[in-house]
Design brief:
Helices cover 43% and strands 18% of the residues. It is built from nine helices and seven strands, in the order ααβααβααβαβαβαββ. α1 runs antiparallel to α3, α2 packs parallel to α3 and α8 runs parallel beside α9.
């Protein structure tokens, strides 16, 4: 594992009750983002506390390569984590943690604090080099994000997401239904990628 990635994981372990990404998830995201070209664009749906954006931004060398970073999260649904999983994160603390992480790592991220269905209207078709879906984990929400954001990804761009696992049946159903056999899930990870 690269030293930078170890530092990112260490940073979040010290600040969060739960990372929401496994070490292997971090590695896969880091590897995927390292392929984003100069002056490219990374878009994530579901900012959370910033773990995935920091990993993708640092791996892509966003600051040096002029890569635009966009994170979409209304921060209205973060409380479900507290009740469903017992993790102590609220919408207010998630936003605070996200902003703190972006400042600490010196990242210039455009944060769209709105529902992903609204945010997609401001993103041009064929403009995204890496799209990472980790917002809604309900079937309808995941399916809508796939439909709404498919046209946004460049030909040959990376279309991926998180939480393809039994405890998130909505993600599994939507990804399977939308992509058929045209996707894969990385070994020892819940990161999925369209082929």
């Amino acid at each position: 594992m690269e030293e930078q990635l170890k530092e990112i994981i260490k940073y979040f372990i010290a600040r969060l009750t739960n990372l929401f990404l496994t070490e292997e998830d971090f590695c896969q995201l880091y590897d995927l983002a390292s392929n984003v070209p100069e002056n490219g664009r990374i878009v994530e749906i579901g900012a959370g506390a910033g773990c995935s954006m920091v990993a993708m931004a640092i791996a892509s060398k966003a600051k040096d390569k002029g890569i635009k970073l966009i994170s979409i999260d209304s921060f209205q649904d973060a409380n479900y984590l507290k009740y469903e999983y017992g993790w102590s994160i609220t919408k207010e603390s998630a936003l605070t943690k996200f902003l703190e992480a972006m400042k600490f790592w010196g990242l210039d991220v455009k944060l769209l604090q709105e529902h992903s269905a609204l945010a997609c209207k401001g993103i041009e078709d064929g403009s995204v080099d890496l799209l990472f879906i980790d917002g809604s984990h309900q079937y309808a929400g995941v399916k809508a994000d796939i439909i709404n954001y498919s046209p946004k990804v460049k030909d040959g761009g990376i279309f991926c997401g998180h939480d393809f696992q039994k405890c998130h049946p909505g993600v599994v159903q939507a990804v399977g239904e939308m992509f058929g056999k045209n996707f894969r899930v990385f070994k020892d990870s819940s990161i999925w990628r369209r082929n």
